[in-house]
Design goal:
Blueprint: H1 6-16, H2 19-25, H3 30-44, E1 49-50, E2 57-58, H4 60-87, E3 92-99, H5 100-105, H6 107-117, E4 121-128, H7 130-138, E5 144-148, E6 156-170, E7 181-182, E8 190-195, H8 200-212, E9 216-222, H9 225-233, E10 239-242, H10 247-251, E11 256-260, E12 265-274, H11 281-291, H12 295-303
Parallel strand pairs: 3-4, 3-5, 7-11, 8-9
Antiparallel strand pairs: 1-2, 5-12, 6-10, 6-11, 6-12
Helix pairs in contact: 1-2, 1-3, 1-4, 2-3
């Protein structure tokens, strides 16, 4: 197909490092290519290519324009893909799994946005701890899943999705609540509220306790983030939780969050799926939508009641 877009012609010349190869690639004559570049330079009021050299060299203006031209062409391609997608109806069934933090506080909003765009897709969701969700993926009971914590299984596709901050919760009347910042020494011999074994949050806590040499005086085990929040509010102990789950309670001052000295505690959320399962259009579209979510989307979700 003959290309007459000056932007595309310019980028092709730069990437081929000469106009002759670019003209051949674009099914244009060499004079046509030269005229397009000349017209582009006249429009911009500056030289883009230094013609005095024996090989192709960009001027300073040309280097700047090349970087922006690439971005413009990429956005054009993305727009064309999106237009093509909405003109083709996506159908099918999609089984989505999620570990508790993601499943209770993030997944409903993600699914709602996807369902609004692709109403013909039937979606079934499953929420369990990370270990159980991984098993569901391995057994091909789930097409795609979102989990917190590391996943190291050769039969599962794993893609990083986003970063999550872990924060320390303490009851309002707890001695630590009077401190603006705590160290690992302050966390020794405390009563802890923990998630059950198999939870991504529990795996994070166990790893941190081992790294910092924290001795746990006593612990209480609960099977959900909601139960842990209630236990901290009741004064039962302190806990490490995802910031995503405590926005409303912090605003209501039901408990306090205390900063731990050092860098913020973070972990990754992951998108996982069966490695050997035949993919579907619904799964591909859902995967792409998740991987291309930008910070503006997360801010939008935050306004609906989720903390970022």
């Amino acid at each position: 197909m003959i290309i007459n877009d000056p932007l595309k012609i310019f980028v092709t010349i730069v990437e081929n490092k000469n106009s002759s190869d670019a003209a051949e690639e674009l099914y244009l004559s060499h004079p046509d290519v030269s005229l397009q570049i000349q017209g582009l330079e006249e429009e911009l009021g500056t030289k883009l290519i230094d013609n005095s050299s024996n090989h192709l060299e960009l001027t300073q203006s040309g280097e700047i324009y090349y970087e922006y031209a690439k971005q413009i062409l990429q956005l054009q391609d993305k727009a064309k893909q999106e237009i093509k997608r909405i003109s083709n109806v996506v159908t099918g069934n999609l089984r989505v799994g999620a570990s508790y933090t993601i499943g209770e506080y993030i997944l409903p909003f993600v699914v709602a946005e996807f369902a609004a765009q692709y109403p013909k897709v039937e979606i079934e969701t499953s929420i369990a701890n990370t270990r159980e969700i991984i098993r569901g993926v391995q057994a091909n009971h789930l097409d795609i899943a979102l989990v917190e914590g590391e996943v190291d299984h050769s039969d599962i596709l794993v893609r990083p999705l986003m970063e999550d901050e872990i924060i320390l919760l303490v009851p309002n009347q707890h001695p630590l609540a009077r401190l603006p910042i705590v160290t690992s020494e302050h966390l020794q011999d405390q009563v802890w509220i923990l998630r059950e074994s198999g939870s991504g949050t529990r795996a994070f806590s166990d790893k941190l306790f081992k790294e910092w040499g924290i001795h746990v005086r006593k612990s209480y085990i609960f099977g959900s983030g909601q139960a842990i929040k209630q236990a901290v509010t009741a004064g039962l102990g302190i806990a490490l939780v995802s910031r995503w789950i405590v926005r409303k309670e912090l605003n209501a001052k039901e408990f306090k969050t205390i900063r731990i000295k050092g860098n913020p505690l973070t972990r990754s959320f992951y998108l996982i799926g069966p490695k050997n399962q035949e993919t579907s259009e619904a799964r591909e579209v859902f995967t792409e939508q998740l991987l291309t979510l930008e910070s503006a989307t997360w801010r939008k979700l935050s306004k609906k009641g989720i903390a970022i």
